[in-house]
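Final report, Chapter 2: Outcomes

The project's central promise was a pipeline that accepts a single protein chain and returns its three-dimensional structure in a standardized token representation, suitable for archiving and comparison. That pipeline is now operational. To close this chapter, we reproduce one record exactly as it appears in the project archive, with the input sequence first and the structure output second.
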Amino acid sequence: MKTYKIDNSKISEFTKRSNNRVFKIKILAITIVTTMCVLMFSMIRQKDVSAELIYTMLLPLLFTTIIIGLNYLNNKKLTNLVAENLKIIIDENSITKVIDLENDPRLNFLHRFAMKKAKNITSDIYYSKIDFYNIKSIEKKNGDLWVKAINSNAFNGEHIIVVPMEITNFDDLEKEVNNRLK
């Protein structure tokens, strides 16, 4: 049995890469709210409306920006904790992903809430095990290794193990998984 973890010097790379995906979605939300405010502002300016109404329209933009910013910072911390606690275990019969955060004292209320919601969507988010005879495909996407089971679900990530490229001895892990399938 071999255990692989993310190298401590590469945790910041993993966190940055993971958060860039989330940040793009949040920027989209800010863009939509901003566009709505600009469209409403241009319509109001044509009819000589009071300044209070304009400030009322800008309030959702400010509120959304603050919430998304705080959420991003909180997500960055959670991603960092995930990277520190991620383990990929390969034994004779299977590959297992374990993220043990249950007893980490650095988790705040929002982290625990996010973990509970994620577990409700899919139980595979923090613990996933795929037997080698049950593997449908292994592919590289954006440098990461995606191991998919026969009954995998791409919509919610069930029965899919994503091995980040920042894992120590990533090439050895990839070779070992490929060799077990032959």
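Archive annotation: Strands lie at 2-5, 86-90, 94-99, 127-131, 135-141, 144-153, 158-163.
This record, like all others produced under the grant, will remain available to the consortium after the project formally closes.
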